[in-house]
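Standup notes
- DV: blocked on the single-chain target, sequence here:
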Amino acid sequence: MKDLESVKELISILETLPSIGKKSAARIAYEIARDRIKGLRILDAIENVVSNVRECSKCGSLSEYEVCSICDSKRDKIVAVVESSKDIEIIEESGSFGGYYFVFNDSVEKLREFILNKGIKEVIFAFSPSVENEIKMRKIKEELGLNIECYSIAKGVPMGVSLENVDISSINFAFLGKILLD
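- DV (later): unblocked, structure below
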């Protein structure tokens, strides 16, 4: 069927995005095709993002400016090293951290430079818990070659989850990182 080639192309492009499968991609594509105004608003928003968003020259986070608003502000002399800009948004939303961020993209030298330029006193690796990331954090710490305290975020049992639904590694981390009750 030669009809709707443009919709099929949109579906195949949408499928390449994280967390969007074929069914979700098809629903989105057909909704855009059906509602032209919504489609044009989405097109405008995508064009805006593509034209205006770039990486912060200091921390690697996404920003509409050369230097993001976090790097351009005065914060605690702590840096959370994260895997993506989305992680920053989640941590900021929690209100649990008042330091700087650095999106790690395999450049230990750039991270070292950031730490030295900002006068950072403490590094917290906020990577997703995995054996690979444990190894990666230790390697980064070693390659930094700085006399600075380095931590990883706590790991363990999530709030509201029954122990029967938690994997063994998370239970092990939970017991290693036990918390003293006052």
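- Follow-up: Residues 9 and 29 are 9 Å apart (CA to CA).
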